[in-house]
Amino acid sequence: MLQTTELALLRRIAAEQADSRAPSLTAGVVREGGLAWFGARGRVDGAAPTRDTQYRIGSITKTFVAVLVMRLRDEGKLDLNDPLDKHVPGTSFGAVTVAQLLAHTGGLTSESPGDWWERAPGGDWAALERSLAENALRHRSGARFHYTNVGYGVLGELVARLRGHSWLEALNAEILQPLEMKRTTPHPQAAAAPGWAVHPFADVLLPEPTPDSGAMAPAGQLWATADDLARWTRLIAGDTGGVLHPDTVAEMREPAHVDDADEWTTGYGLGLQVMRMGGRRLAGHGGSMPGFLAMVLADERTGTGAFVAANSTSGVAVGTVAFDLISTVEAHEPALPTEWLPLTDHDPALLELTGLWHWGPTPYLLKLLGDRWLNLAPVSGRGRQSRFRPAGPDRWTGLDGYYAGETLELHRGADGAPSHFDLATFVFTREPYGVPEAIPGGVDGKGWQSGIR
Prior knowledge:
Largest sheet: 8 strands, antiparallel
Pfam families: Beta-lactamase, DUF7586
Strand content: 15-25%
Helix content: 10-25%
CATH topology of the largest domain: Beta-lactamase
GO molecular function, one term: hydrolase activity
Number of domains: 2
Domain Beta-lactamase-related: 12-321
Distance between the termini: 69 Å
Structural class: alpha+beta
Number of strands: 20
InterPro entries: AmpC-like, Beta-lactam-related, Beta-lactam/transpept-like, DUF7586
Radius of gyration: 25 Å
EC number: 3.-.-.-
């Protein structure tokens, strides 16, 4: 990056480390497929932390568990609408769905009963399940967002049941090894930052405990380095390295719930926090454990992301810093638009379908995209629009907005020529109401008329 950009980034984290009195802080900016900038302030064992220094990342762990669950969904081993009882039978909250657990809308209690799980050694699944035998639900399932660490302990057990081994083994085999994240571990491995609490009224420190959380570990156990957090930020932005299809990550970034519905700024998707800040739509997750704070964020439009990690229990505005790093880079060195290139191959039969179609009297444009995808959007730019992925001969599945998951089907006449599209019962014709026999309710035989009677 330009020296002026790097200075602005360093100035931002230096101010945060000094103002919030963080023992140490590392941060990085990710763009164009790699770690574009790294910065560090403070000391770990008497020296500046490096890209290989581990920090505990807390609830960012949940995003790894969510990816494991979505992999199971993509393999057909579960459906997001499945009740928990189908895969982990016998709990007192078995009617809660997998999707609700991912999005924190199942109504499950926020913390595990008993000692504060973040500071106490955790028991096994049997112990956690017993502790939830009564009063596990705090709200009606699906009624509202209620952040639940317990829910991700449950999802870790679900992964273990369906994979036949622990969630950590699944994590290592399915995510960490393929992405070459060699320094993401359930326990610290040197070099690792110690966790500290900073006294509120004096510049002195208190060591914080880092116990194994047992069955609650999927909620916040992991440690990671800057290099590994950079790779994970890239995945959230859509560079999945084959671990997930980019469309699945995009699905995870879609808000399942928003906190302020009138003009939402924060919400939660399927394992990812989502937010709108300064005109940007961001996805990622924060992490907080005794002695540590962390954040990963990515701008889904530009692909620019940032991460921050600090070894302090509280006081470091890691989310604000991550956003400021993204904004600084985009202001100093804005991302270039993706270079336009013509299709390398196309189906002439699909090319013939492009152009103007009408839903009733409303004109729509159908465009051909790569890989036989289609894009259908109103000419005015206002209204429902979607991309469609091939789902068989003359059939496509909607990917966006109102038509997500719906089927676009091409109907042909007796001669095999295209007649009309049916999209979730909505009929699209070349001319307004151009195929009367296909229009629900029929078309007035007098046709278009002049004047108003």
